[in-house]
Fold this protein.
Amino acid sequence: MDLSRSLRTIRLVYPLLLTQSCNLPQYILGEAPEVKNFFVAAGMNSSGIASAGGAGRLVAEWAHEGRPSTDVWDIDIRRFHGFQNSTKYLSDRTSETLGLHYAMGWPRREFQSCRPLRRSAVFNLLNDSGAVWGNKFGWERPNYFNTDETDVKPTFGRPDWHHLSANEHLACRESSALFDISSFAKTLVVGKQAEAALQYICANDLNVPDNSLVYTPMLNDRGGFESDVTITRMADDKFMVVSPTAQGTRDRAWMQRQVEKIGMDNVHLVDLTSAYAVLSLQGPDSRDILARVTGSDPSAFSNEQFPFGTSQDVYIGYAQARAARISYVGELGWELYIPSEMAVTAYEALKEAGASVDAGYYAIESLRLEKGYRAWGHELTPDLTPLHAGLDFAVSYGKDFCGKDALLKQKEEGVASRVVSVVLQDPEAQLWGGEPIMCHDQVVGFISSAGYGHSVGSAVGLGAVKNPEGGLVTASTIKQAQYSVDIAGNMFDVDVSLRAPFDPKSLRVKA
């Protein structure tokens, strides 16, 4: 992208007062992802007056040191995409955002303007099945399916969609559920130096056999998370990086800057997000359903012939697909990467073969929280490391990578906070996120992600906690402490653990 186009982007997009992570106006800071060393501080409006000194400091740090000193994702320029250059988009979304500035901030409130825009290939089929749509990074994504036309009203209490999402959650645990996760960002990294570059950018080891999947952090020089991704090694010089929906621009910009930093020219990044739809079939019945839809014996999807953490090319009815055995909900399951033009055919074949329950992102959230699975932007931030997050297993210390020295030092010294799973003892209480975690009348952390664990029968959450007495946080200090959560001024006792509330040994995932 040349400089003239960058200036046009700043004129159009960057005054847009919105953020992908909340429904409040936010300005824009940071290095333009398209142009190295081109820094932006724009769209301030009245909020810029309040933030002026801090914003100036952050931009100065970014320009001088290559990064800000703290997590600024809510105002990061990389939260935008090129489609937001549209004058009509800017006009409609800005009008809505400013109009909501003093409105009641209901939990899970969604923007209504500029929709629908990005729709997966199976959008119409899911719409006919009763999908209630949410919006992320311009994508329409089903939050849940309102099959009985329940009248849903905004609330801070138990939501009207609770039982609808519960049905999807329990179907995934007990039989199977089909999720459309086509919005996940997909980046192809190719070239003779692709492996060497990714080995530096990623903390985990990518020197694995072809068709292997690797879950890995991408860290900054402080050891903090810049992202967490799943990478499929497709060939010696070809890797597919899958990122969370809103992080496509950010992750590609981060990888490109790191490639430039280490001086590797034979590495190329290609955005494949729109080229492939992704249907995730999860649950105890998923193996049998895939066997039926592919015309195979169930043994073709057994642990011996299709181990966890691997991928293979398959046919879903008439449609080609790459099946990846992986799960973000804690069940036996596969993600199916399907050319977009074949996605409808594949979806229909899966439904005919027995994948009867469509499920949405609210169910994904409750399922992953029961399993203690972390999410970037919530439990994983540039200020927290794999040692804070309990993800040290995804770090390979036998190679060089960005952030290694910081992690080795932290490993020796210990950490002052740890991400823990939180389960409310009162099954009627409701968590939405942001609630203070208390210990000995002190605030020791906050709920970073929240949902209702329909399998454990109570609200569940994740959050990083500190030691109320100061010093390091260890498994022992967490076990000995008594915690509670403050919900709107009312204290609720909670069980806190470093282990997942549901299936902590992941026996179901590898069944």
Observations:
- The first strand starts at residue 28 and ends at 31.
- DSSP finds 13 helices and 22 strands in the chain.
- The chain has a mean pLDDT of 91.
- Residues 368-497 form a domain with the Elongation Factor Tu (Ef-tu); domain 3 fold (CATH 2.40.30.110).
